[in-house]
Design brief:
It is a single chain. With 425 residues, the chain is α+β, with helices and mostly antiparallel strands. It has two domains: 304 residues, Zn peptidases (Aminopeptidase), CATH 3.40.630.10; 110 residues, Alpha-Beta Plaits (2-Layer Sandwich). It contains ten helices and 17 strands. The radius of gyration is 23 Å and the shape is globular. The chain starts with 6 loop residues before the first helix and ends in an 8-residue tail after the last helix.
Length: 425
C-alpha cells in the first residue's frame, strides 16, 4: 500500500507515532494464573498516564476505576440527538512473548528488503515471512529491537484513540457525536471485560480498535471454549511399580497424540476453519492436566469439537485400571456476528468511515476474540476496527507510522459521521 495521500492522516501522523512510541515503552504485560486484577499491576502505570492525558485534553468524567479501566467523555459538537459512540482499546500486552523493556525502532522510508532487528540479529523481518510488509515500501516501519514483542496489540489502538480525541478537541469547529473512551486491562488473558459496567459506560454502541489489516472492519469472531482435561493415575515408587503404576503424564501425552494432526489444529487451519488446540500442560504421575482452547465460527461445530475432545479423553483411559479422566468446559466468548446482524448501521458506519479516508473497506472475521466479543454478547454492539498492526504476539511484530495515522483518521471520520442526521440509528 502506497503512503496515504489523505491530508488528515498526514496531519495526525506525528502525534499518533509519538504517543505509540511512548506507550509501548511502558510495561503492561498481562499474566496467566494471577490472583490480582489486573493480572500484573504494572498495567496501571499506563492507565494512570492515559487518565492524566485525557484530563489534560479537557475531557469530562475521566475516571480510573478500581479495576483499572480508564473512562472519559468527549462532549458533542452540533450533534443534537446523536448516539453516544464508544471507542475501546486494551492497554495490556500478551504474555506469550517477552514484553518488558520494549525498545521501539523506527525504520525510515522502508526500502522493501529484510530488516534485521538490532537487539537480536537472529530475528529478521522479511516480506517473505510477513506478506504485507512488501506493500509498505516508503513507509516508516516500527519494530521492537527483536528481544521483545512491540506491543502494537493493542497500544496501536490506544494511541490511535488518544490522537483522534486530541485532534477533535483541538478542532471544536468540527461537528462530532458524543464519545465515551474506554481503555481496558487483561484482554490478553481473557478477562478484559470481567468488571466492565456497560450501563455505567453509557455508550449506545462501541468499536474496539484492535484489528490488524488496514481498511478491514471485523464483525465476526470465533466462538470459544476453554477445556480442561485432567487425567488421574496411580503413583508408586518407580523401583517397585511394575503392574501397579499408572502414569498420568503418559495418559496426557497419549491424549494429545490422539488429537487430529492434519486438521482441526491452528497450524493446519485458516479462514473459517475451527480448531482444537492443546495450549498448556501441567502435573505429574498422580494427575496431569491438559488445557485446550477450542474454536469455531459456528456454534454447532464448536460443540462437535468439544464432543471429540471428550471422546478422545475417555478412549485414552478406557481399559486401564486405576486411570480416570474429567473434562470441564467453559464458554469464553461467542461469535459477535449474530448480535451485530441486528444492528447493521453500526457496522455500516465503520465501513463508510474507511471509505471517507480513501481506503477500500473490507469486512473480515477474527480468528480469535476481542473485548468486543463479550461486550456484544452482553448487549453493547461492538465491531472491531483495524489498527494496522502485524505479526502480533511475536518478536517480529510491526506497524507503520502511516498505518497508525490512517487508522486515526478513520476514527475521526467515524465520530464526525455519527453527528450527521442521516446516520442516526
Amino acid at each position: 500500500m502506497a503512503v496515504s495521500a489523505n491530508p488528515l492522516a498526514r496531519e495526525l501522523e506525528a502525534d499518533v507515532l509519538d504517543r505509540f512510541l511512548r506507550y509501548v515503552r511502558i510495561d503492561t504485560q498481562a499474566a496467566y494464573g494471577s490472583d490480582t486484577y489486573p493480572s500484573r499491576l504494572e498495567q496501571l502505570d499506563l492507565c494512570r498516564l492515559l487518565a492524566h492525558e485525557l484530563r489534560a485534553l479537557g475531557l469530562e468524567d475521566v475516571e480510573l476505576t478500581e479495576h483499572g479501566y480508564v473512562l472519559g467523555t468527549l462532549e458533542p459538537v452540533e450533534a443534537e440527538g446523536a448516539p453516544t459512540v464508544g471507542l475501546i482499546a486494551h492497554v495490556d500486552t500478551s504474555p506469550d512473548a517477552p514484553g518488558t523493556n520494549v525498545e521501539p525502532h523506527v525504520w525510515k522510508s522502508y526500502d522493501g528488503g529484510e530488516l534485521r532487528l538490532p537487539g537480536n540479529p537472529d530475528q529478521i523481518l522479511s516480506p517473505e515471512t510477513s506478506a504485507l510488509l512488501a506493500e509498505r515500501v516508503g513507509h516508516d516501519i516500527v519494530t521492537s529491537d527483536g528481544t521483545t514483542l512491540l506491543g502494537a496489540d493493542d497500544k496501536a489502538g490506544v494511541a490511535e484513540i488518544m490522537a483522534a480525541v486530541a485532534y477533535l478537541v483541538a478542532h471544536p469547529e468540527l461537528p462530532r457525536a458524543p464519545v465515551r473512551v474506554g481503555f481496558t486491562v487483561d484482554e490478553e488473558v481473557g478477562a478484559g471485560t470481567a468488571h466492565f459496567d456497560i450501563e455505567a459506560y453509557g455508550a449506545d454502541f462501541a468499536y474496539t480498535l484492535d484489528g490488524q489489516r488496514v481498511g478491514e472492519i471485523e464483525n465476526e469472531t470465533f466462538s470459544a471454549l476453554g477445556v480442561d482435561v485432567v487425567f488421574r493415575g496411580r503413583g508408586v515408587h518407580p523401583g517397585t511399580s511394575k503392574g501397579k503404576m499408572v502414569n498420568a503424564v503418559k495418559l496426557a501425552a497419549d491424549f494429545v497424540a490422539r488429537l487430529p494432526k492434519d486438521r482441526l489444529s491452528p497450524e493446519t487451519t485458516e479462514g473459517r476453519e475451527g480448531f482444537i488446540h492443546p495450549a498448556y500442560t501441567s502435573g505429574g504421575i498422580e494427575d496431569a492436566r491438559v488445557t485446550l482452547i477450542v474454536r469455531d465460527f459456528e456454534w454447532d461445530l464448536l460443540q462437535q469439537h468439544e464432543e471429540l475432545v471428550r471422546r478422545l479423553a475417555e478412549e485414552t483411559v478406557a481399559g486401564t485400571p486405576h486411570a480416570s479422566v474429567t473434562v470441564d468446559s467453559r464458554v469464553q466468548y461467542r461469535n459477535m456476528r449474530e448480535t451485530l446482524e441486528r444492528f447493521p448501521r453500526v457496522v455500516e458506519a465503520a465501513v463508510e468511515a474507511v471509505r471517507r479516508v480513501g481506503l477500500e473497506p473490507k469486512r473480515g472475521l477474527i480468528r480469535g476474540g476481542t473485548d468486543g466479543s463479550v461486550l456484544t454478547e452482553k448487549g453493547l454492539p461492538t465491531p472491531n476496527i483495524f489498527t494496522g498492526g502485524n505479526e502480533y504476539h511475536s518478536l517480529c511484530e510491526w506497524i507503520s507510522a502511516q498505518d497508525l495515522a490512517i487508522a486515526t483518521a478513520t476514527i475521526v471520520e467515524l465520530v464526525r459521521l455519527w453527528s450527521e442526521p442521516d446516520w442516526r440509528l
